[in-house]
Amino acid sequence: MPPRLRSLRAHLLALWILLLASAAATAYLLTEFYTQSAAVQVAQAELQVARACREIGDRFAFFSAGWSGSVAQVDDTLKGQLTDVVVTALAAHPGVEGGIWTAAGGSAAYAFPTYEGTGPKTDLPAAELDTIRRVNAETLSGGRPVTTRRVARTQTLVVQGCPLRGPIQGATAWTMARVYTDQGRAYGQLLAGFGFLAATVLGSALLLGRLLLLLGRRIARLEGQLGRDADEGGVPHEGELPRLAPTGLRELDRLVEALNAAGARLAAARRRAAEAERLAALGQLAAGIAHEIRNPLAAIRLKAENALASADPARPRAALDLVLVQVARMDRLLRDLLSLTQKRAPALAPTDLAAVLAESAHLHDDLARAQGVRIAVAEAPRERPRLDEAQLRRALDNLLLNAIQHSPAGGVVRLSAEVAGERLRIRVTDQGPGVPASLRERLFEPFVTGRPDGTGLGLALVREIARAHGGQVRLAAPPPDGPGSGATFELDLPWSLP
Q1: Is-contact 263 283, C-beta < 8 A?
Q2: Cβ-contact 57, 173 below 8 angstroms
Q3: Which PANTHER family does the protein's record reference (predicted)?
Q4: Which end of the chain is more exposed for a tag (fewer CB within 10 A), N or C?
């Protein structure tokens, strides 16, 4: 089983699809890498806020050491002192803010010593206040550190609460950090990766699209050039490869050069074959002429010798009559040969096809009656195609004579014409024995005949007339009835309206 064939365009399209799949996989890997990088940032932020929260606890324990009793309410003086504790604890933790929270009074201290804005930040972040309150409440009720995350589109908020041991009742410490996932090295790498990926995919798509377009146009141009059977001068020349123009693509031009070289070799081989065929045809023609002329000359010589040797005065007269008959035969042979060899372009003119068919049939009525044959003419198209009427009549004469001579007594020769698309088809059908299989391949060659008294030039002349009109003559397929069912010759000519 032969391997499945695919076009170059299909291969390039498959390559483009693979490129898209590779780009999608790369984008997925970049996203995963960024996600993992963001997760590492969040984990590092959690570790930092936990350390900062423990630092606040240690500083608070040092600050409250030696106190006696418990403190239920935190006044402004104590708030200021606690704020200093928080500032001292968070000074070594960039990006971390925090404070001290009491169950009874809420925020007892707040500080963000590494804040990068203008001036120190002393106000609690209002947007995160509920989260801070909830974390401190969970820490107080559980008596252990509590960490929570709040993930938004551009940032992740990490908050931790730590229980405080000391004189202030219901006190907890809290720290908070923001991880901006749309900033930093990982996010920059992600954007750069996606930008590079988009540029390469778009560039590859444009390059492949341009390549497909160029290939399509160049190949279409080559197909158009190969579809024209013409020589370098633009004259139609059947069977030869036209010379192809370069396409501008190196790979295709190598193919073009190979085709041009093959075309040149083919043209040279065709010229050699045509020359050999012409010489063979000339040899066959010379042999045929010699054979056809030798028989009449032999008859003339025999009659002349008999007339000279005979004392009967009537013998010379009979000999001269036979000489004239044989001379007429040779004259007819030479006239057909001249018509066959001296080709001329047909003089096309609007032709009354129905009248030509009827007159050609009427011209052979006497011969048909003498043979006991009837000629039947079917109704012809009324349009007037452009044909050479004289050449058409001569072709019909040869076809009708051939059909009459091969038809038995009582037979019918049918003459018809029809239009099939842009073609005119004229058929002559007889009821004779048909054409022997041995003659069908060479039937239209000169001096090929199935009759002992035939010259074999009639059908060859019909072929030349058909070719001069841009058409052809052919023997239709033998009828299904087998031998003895007759033969049909068909003239296939271009239908050219004026």
Answers
A1: no
A2: yes
A3: PEROXIDE STRESS-ACTIVATED HISTIDINE KINASE MAK3, SENSOR HISTIDINE KINASE
A4: N
